[in-house]
Design brief:
The protein has helices spanning 5-36, 43-61, 64-87, 95-117, 141-163, 165-175, 177-182, 187-209, 219-234, 239-256, 262-265, 267-279; strands at residues 131-134, 137-140. The chain is an all-alpha fold. The chain has a single domain (9-279), classed as Orthogonal Bundle (ABC transporter involved in vitamin B12 uptake, BtuC), CATH 1.10.3470.
Length: 290
């Protein structure tokens, strides 16, 4: 079956936009894993709670950008509290204990959201309205704005880790936790900050994605599953690899939806995951050591 070029181009744009949102979610997840060796199963619920905080703040202020900042900060603080109360006592133990702990936290947060907000989806209004003509479609400006904002946020995180003083502390902790502590770096607080940053990234993603779908207590489940696939395919602990893998997988799913339904197209990402684990378990986008 021949696919018209206009459909191919539209799906390419959709794949890149979705990939940048997925990259934001996966960047926070891989940051936490790469530095703390913690598989955070509650990441999807932080994504979901960020969207709900955005809904509440938007209702109170009427300003989407204030809602975005407020949700990011609020969930970052919540992430720090979760780490200090639940995960910090478990660091250094069997990794299974932290997996079970984060899974328990995810169930608590998901059921709290269902109890507090109910099963009816909430709506976040788009801050940027309007459409432009893209072949036979009216394509919304907001979708392109999401991609630009995601690039800006991820770029800011990269600059912070590369050149900021606290970013250097984080990278030093990643390379050698014992030596970093011997050099006077407050490693326990660095780990708390890392978990808070990862939680804030998830929350920002939830607010940005909220206008495209309804905000509900289940919205984080599918995203965190895809984020885990991205982290494995991109290379565990590699932020740049996660970004590349997020765009790669989203484009594959977008192209696959030209032949099958979007629900069936998701299977492509699982196929990529299985092939990666079989033939390149270190990740597709991690350079091979020479």
């Amino acid at each position: 079956m021949n696919i018209p070029f206009d459909q191919f181009l539209i799906q390419t744009i959709n794949g890149i936009v979705t990939g940048m949102i997925l990259a934001m979610v996966a960047s926070g997840l891989t940051l936490i894993f790469g530095i703390m060796d913690v598989v955070n199963f509650a990441h999807g619920e932080l994504f979901m709670l960020g969207a709900y905080v955005g809904v509440l703040t938007l209702a109170a202020t009427g300003n989407f950008w204030i809602a975005l900042i407020a949700a990011t900060l609020a969930i970052a603080v919540l992430g720090a509290v979760i780490y200090l109360t639940t995960l910090r006592p478990l660091i250094g133990r069997d990794p299974l204990t932290t997996i079970l702990a984060t899974f328990g936290v995810s169930l608590v947060l998901q059921n709290y959201a269902l109890w507090q907000f109910g099963p009816v989806a909430r709506k976040i209004e788009e801050p940027i309205t309007g459409h432009f003509s893209l072949f036979y479609l009216e394509y919304p400006y907001y979708r392109l704005a999401i991609a630009v904002l995601a690039v800006a946020i991820i770029g800011g995180l990269w600059l912070f880790l590369k050149h900021g003083t606290y970013g250097i502390w984080i990278r030093a902790t990643t390379q050698d936790r014992v030596m970093a502590q011997a050099m006077g770096i407050p490693v326990p607080w660095v780990l708390t900050a890392v978990f808070a940053i990862g939680a804030g990234m998830a929350a920002a993603s939830g607010v940005l994605f909220g206008p495209l779908v309804g905000v509900n207590s289940q919205m984080g489940t599918s995203w965190v599953l895809r984020a885990f696939i991205v982290v494995v395919v991109g290379g565990m602990g590699s932020i740049s690899g996660s970004i590349a893998a997020a765009i790669f997988i989203s484009l594959l799913e977008a192209y696959a939806s030209l032949w099958v339904s979007p629900a069936q197209a998701v299977i492509v990402s699982f196929v990529v995951l299985i092939l990666t684990l079989l033939f390149r378990p270190t990740g597709l986008f991690v350079p091979t050591p020479k």
